[in-house]
Design a protein that fits this description.
The chain is mainly beta. About 10% of the residues lie in helices and about 40% in strands. Strands 1, 3, 4, 7, 10, 11, 12 and 14 form an eight-stranded antiparallel sheet that branches. Strands 2, 5, 6, 8, 9 and 13 form a six-stranded antiparallel sheet that branches. A hairpin with a 2-residue loop joins strand 10 and strand 11. The radius of gyration is 19 Å and the shape is globular. About 35% of the residues are buried.
Length: about 220
């Protein structure tokens, strides 16, 4: 009887193990069906197409309404349809967004734009950091971006390669354009969102997101 009890306990433990795996800790913020939990500010909008978020028009911001996020890893799986498609992932927004420019100036935009220079390309904090690598996949292929928020420290990994490693207070390039963000410290936690941004000729930028997820740091 003791052996059977031990065996039963061991089998029960094995059945329970998958719930303890690290992958089970990810919380999906986009349900793949509709915009529940998200809100648009600014021009343009997002559509749900075949289980994906699709950027339409802009420049605007779709932000997650579930509250501030900090000390976490944010995972975003996205693809562009043209090399000059433009979008971004906003982090560390200090207050709930009411319009599209406050997040630009007081949060950080993790850029999605393969045609940009080393300060304005996919994976950098837009205009504030220099790309350590440029591991974007070609248009039409899925990219996985993981943004780690660890107190004042921000790390961006793109397809397994580090692009940004920045700690609040480190020097940043001079601000040279009026649409570049204001300089200054960002909060350790903040609201997050994804950007819709048209091409320079005002045509839609076809960026798709199939996953937006978050996992707290241990």
């Amino acid at each position: 009887m003791i052996r059977r009890s031990v065996l039963f306990f061991a089998l029960a433990l094995l059945v329970a193990l998958p719930a303890q795996m690290p992958g089970a800790e990810w919380k999906q913020l986009f349900n793949g069906k509709d915009l529940t939990g998200w809100k648009q500010v600014g021009p343009g909008h997002f559509e749900v197409e075949d289980g994906m978020l699709k950027t339409v028009g802009g420049m605007g911001l779709l932000y997650y309404t579930g509250g501030k996020i900090g000390n976490s890893v944010i995972r975003v799986v996205f693809k562009v349809t043209k090399p000059d498609d433009n979008s971004g992932v906003f982090i560390r927004i200090p207050i709930e967004p009411r319009e599209e420019w406050m997040p630009v100036n007081y949060g950080y935009e993790v850029q999605i734009y393969d045609a940009g220079d080393e300060h304005h390309c996919t994976g950098v904090l837009y205009s504030l950091t220099t790309a350590m690598a440029r591991p974007s996949k070609p248009a039409g292929e899925w990219n996985t971006m993981e943004i780690t928020l660890d107190g004042p420290h921000t790390v961006v990994m793109l397809n397994g390669t580090k692009v940004t490693d920045y700690t609040e207070g480190q020097p940043v390039p001079e601000r040279t354009k009026e649409f570049e963000p204001q300089h200054g410290r960002r909060p350790n936690e903040g609201w997050i969102g994804v950007q819709n941004h048209p091409h320079e000729d005002k045509s839609d930028s076809g960026v798709y997101f199939k996953e937006v997820a978050v996992k707290p740091l241990k």
